[in-house]
């Protein structure tokens, strides 16, 4: 349980946990052996928090593999063990930042984690048929003061199966001060978000060249569309699973440690895939930053949201 008296940094806002804008994620381990109950909960909440989905030993191996490589950039404070992930305070130190589809995401230990039996078996049960995961993998190496703005994943990968899901995997423990993910509960189905799903949710960043983030203000989203954000602390092995129309963002990392997490996608193997993210050499985003960008504020005004 998280303390309701705790104040956290969420994007550029200081919010009270347990207050109007931010609550606690609900765990789904109580229905883990009931696929139909899991599907119903996903439909209701837009997410599933599964504690211990991954083998903690596999998480530890992936962290060791990745941090050993990241250490070569000089990002870590050399006064501490590499696996502690302490940020190098020297201004000339270089942090890897966002990593997608690079050699670092093809290491054996990392792939054993995100393509291993625990997660693949989970999705085969949840989907009721064999599952596949995109070949392209995403990783976020988040430093002090950094966060992710609110968005739907569909705007980045919406050309394939409608039953595509994201798994957010902490590669190590993530405490509240490290900027864990937050979910806007019910945003995938609530009537108040219908116009958002019909407009912003149908956008394609490569086709439309629009900023991907819907907003960087979590308070504005609650005040305008209702509902509430939810977050929590995570331990190695935990996984947060959500659909393409679930609004999500991250709290701000205010600690002196890097937050290392991965974003991986899973869907029925028999259904169409988004061609940008599969194959031996996925082409990934090709048009998003190939020309002038349309500001999200401009599009939201056009959409009336």
Question: Can you offer a commentary on this structure?
Answer:
By secondary structure, the protein is an alpha+beta fold. It contains 9 helices and 13 strands. Strands 4, 5, 6, 7, 8, 11 and 13 form a 7-stranded antiparallel beta sheet that branches. A 4-stranded mixed beta sheet has the order 3-10-9-12, with no helix packed on it. The longest helix has 15 residues, at 56-70. The chain is globular. The two termini are 35 Å apart.
Features:
single chain; 305 residues; alpha+beta; seven-stranded antiparallel sheet; four-stranded mixed sheet; 9 helices
Tell me the fraction of residues in β-strands, as a range: 15-25%
Count every helix, treating DSSP H or I runs of 4 or more residues as helices. 9
Structural class based on helices, strands and sheet pairing: alpha+beta
* Terminal-residue CA separation: 35 Å
DSSP summary, beta strand count: 13
Order of helices and strands: EEEHEHEHHEEHEEHHHEEEEH
Shape by Cα distribution? globular
Stretches where pLDDT is under 50 for at least 5 consecutive residues are none
Mean pLDDT: 95
Can you summarize the main beta sheet? 7 strands, antiparallel
Query: Over the alpha carbons, how many angstroms does the gyration radius reach?
Result: 19 Å
Approximate helicity band: 10-25%
């Amino acid at each position: 349980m998280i303390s309701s008296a705790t104040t956290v940094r969420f994007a550029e806002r200081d919010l009270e946990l347990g207050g109007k804008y931010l609550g606690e994620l609900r765990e789904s381990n109580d229905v883990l052996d009931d696929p139909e109950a899991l599907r119903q909960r996903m439909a209701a909440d837009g997410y599933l928090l599964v504690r211990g989905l991954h083998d903690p030993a596999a998480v530890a191996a992936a962290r060791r593999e990745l941090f050993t490589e990241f250490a070569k950039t000089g990002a870590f404070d050399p006064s501490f063990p590499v696996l502690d992930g302490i940020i190098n305070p020297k201004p000339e130190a270089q942090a890897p930042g966002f990593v997608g589809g690079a050699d670092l995401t093809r290491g054996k230990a990392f792939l054993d984690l995100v393509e291993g039996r625990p997660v693949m078996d989970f999705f085969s049960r949840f989907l009721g048929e064999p599952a596949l995961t995109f070949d392209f993998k995403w990783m976020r190496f988040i430093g002090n003061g950094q966060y992710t703005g609110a968005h739907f994943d569909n705007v980045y990968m919406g050309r394939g199966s409608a039953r595509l899901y994201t798994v957010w995997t902490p590669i190590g423990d993530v405490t509240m001060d490290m900027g864990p993910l937050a979910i806007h509960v019910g945003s995938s189905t609530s009537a108040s978000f219908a116009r958002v799903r019909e407009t912003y949710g149908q956008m394609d960043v490569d086709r439309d060249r629009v900023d991907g983030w819907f907003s960087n203000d979590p308070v504005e989203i609650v005040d305008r569309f209702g509902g509430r954000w939810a977050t929590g602390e995570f331990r190695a092995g935990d996984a947060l699973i959500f659909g393409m129309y679930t609004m999500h963002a991250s709290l701000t990392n205010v600690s002196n440690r890097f937050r290392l997490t991965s974003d991986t996608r899973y869907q029925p193997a028999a259904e169409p895939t988004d061609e940008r993210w599969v194959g031996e050499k996925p082409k990934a985003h090709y048009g998003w930053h190939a020309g002038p960008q349309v500001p999200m504020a401009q599009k939201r005004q056009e959409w009336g949201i």
